[in-house]
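Anyone able to model this chain together with BES?
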Amino acid sequence: MMLSLSGGSPELGRLDIPLLVVALAAGAGVDGELASLDTSLGGALMRTLERRDFRGTRDETLHLAGGTTGPARVLLIGTGSTGERAGRLRRAGALAARQGGRMGVGELAMFAGPLDIMETEALAVGLAAGAWDYLDTKSALPADERRAPLSRARILGADDAGLASGVAIAEGHGLARTLGMMPGNLCTPEFLATTARQIGERHGLTVTVLGRAEMEQLGMGSFLCVAQGSPEDPKLITLEYFGGASGAQPIALVGKGLCFDSGGISIKPAQGMEWMKFDMCGAAGVLGAMEAIARLRLPVNVVGLIGSTTNMPSGTAVKPGDVVRSMSGKFIEIINTDAEGRLVLADLLTYAKQFKPAAVIDAATLTGACVIALGHTATGVLGNEAALVQEVLRAGSRAGEPGWELPMWDDYKELIKSDVADIKNSGGRPAGTITAALFLKEFADDFPWVHLDVAGTAYTEADLGTVPRGPTGVPVGTFVEFVRGRAG
Ligand code: BES
Ligand code: MN
Ligand code: ZN
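re: yes, here you go
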């Protein structure tokens, strides 16, 4: 269940609310609306700040009991002193909602001073992110141990338009995270197709789904070799959103949708293999972004393309040394069956040509090497056009999803030359993120294209404070910001 968000008047001292969260920057004082709150707290806020018990540093929290009137509890959250205000509020909102969830208050109000449209949106996105949870596969606790989940949040002094766009983006984020968290036996290629059809029905998108037989007709030997070890039908899912002028070239968003990646015959070690249910986070990002873009009614044409299957070892699975023919006609030597994401994306990029896209952005949990290079902080960004790379980097930073560019120099291409085919699917460990992107570039020869390696950023193995272990919602924000940037 998604957090229900609304606005409200910032008369803090008179609020009838179980929890009021106040976001305070470093060194902030008690003025304006905070004075009436301080009165209802008998001066506790002023004393707390004067004693410097709370200083407003980033992520700092302090809990105060409320007075006999006004908010029952008050939580101060620090937003620090550096960075854009919208980003700081997104973070504070997430911490607030998580804390509200732990306390079991059910509802909170958040005050952060005056809010413009982007600040309201960021706060809404943060609050919804902090309240997100995946409970579908857990039994409910006994009634006496249960705490109310956070189901409502009021943003005091919210800008109405910012609230509406925040809710739209939050819905997209929540969808992507739910799909990411779902176990692989539930979130199957067929389930992703059903989810796409539901988005289509909700918002009037055209959705088409191709299976193994149709992809064979198209000559997608690269995608299909990944799926050939799995009894499940692979799916190529297309969502077409027509928000722009008819005939205007669309933006294509492409996602890797490996519902489970065992590595195939080049099987992965057992330790941590369960994390490979997250290998569909690129696809989840596309679905989440399409949901948000449609809700925002952005005046742009957008095509979402998802390649979904599982990578399994079996008697029919593709083997190292095999050569397959991609839809583009290029022959690919399979060196490592665990380098499967690029094989799926190669045929998706060729398939994308028919839409004559103005720009193509793909997102994929593509390489472990990206996690080594950039950790869980930055998405790897590579592309075939410098201006588009910069545009995507800016979109990511606005969304609070920073990226970092890696070079695509031709020198690295030596590593993926094959003796028997046009190209091989693995260049080994050195520069693994770059060689993967150079492989994709061979199939993105017809349009401006950027690749997002979200292997380190789409999910987290450690609690980040704002987000628990699991999916982060990346790259939904980057996709939405990019498309919105193109909207006008
Ligand atoms: N899905 C993995 C990449 C991955 C690894 C994502 C760790 C998230 C965390 C991808 O399919 C893969 O296995 N890549 C190989 C490529 C190698 C065989 C060239 C890798 O990174 O080891
Ligand atoms: Mn793999
Ligand atoms: Zn993979």
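The domain at 171-487 is CATH 3.40.630.10 (Aminopeptidase).
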